Amino acid sequence: MDVELPVLPFALRTYGPDGHWSFEDGILTGWAGSRQDRFVPPTGEALDPASDAPRLLGSPVGDFQLIARVTVGFNSSFDAGALYVHVGERAWAKLCLEYSPDVATVCTVVTRGHSDDANSFTVDGSSVWLRVSRTGRAFAFHASRDGERWTFVRLFTLGGEKETEAALIGFMTQAPLGEGCVVTYDHVEFRPHWPADLRDGR
């Protein structure tokens, strides 16, 4: 199923379980069902083939920034809405607003065979602004409480330049322990360039 967002210069397609994705009046809405998550434990357990979460992804060309304000209907620990980067089945990353485990937290996961997991800062309420950027082989994650002042969260690579150019970018929802949650994304914005400075707050 394809979903069109007029502000994005690339098409979006659904992946994984049905996220009931919809876009209306500038708001993208997705739903994570019970026990849906995307994580490959670094402690060595095999990934459950059924372990997946709803994703809505497309393939932008060149350098870019994808920005959205993410609001999560928290019900259970680790419910989250995320911006997501996919290079391969075991090469992907997500920038989340997550209930982790009892307070809204900006966190990141980068998966290269297995996933890591790192928390950044806590958020009052259930909304935060997230941004993923790309240039060459590099990706960057930023987050903001107000959409104006940005906190640098992470800089990383997932593969070679050719794989990175073909990366899928977009949105993901998850509810690893609970019965499901609804996530909305508004103020979605696309910028066709890399940030001038990753650490100056712009």
TrEMBL record:
One Pfam assignment: DUF1349
Top-level taxon of the source organism: Bacteria
UniProt organism field: Streptomyces tropicalis
Official protein name in the record: DUF1349 domain-containing protein
Coiled coil: none
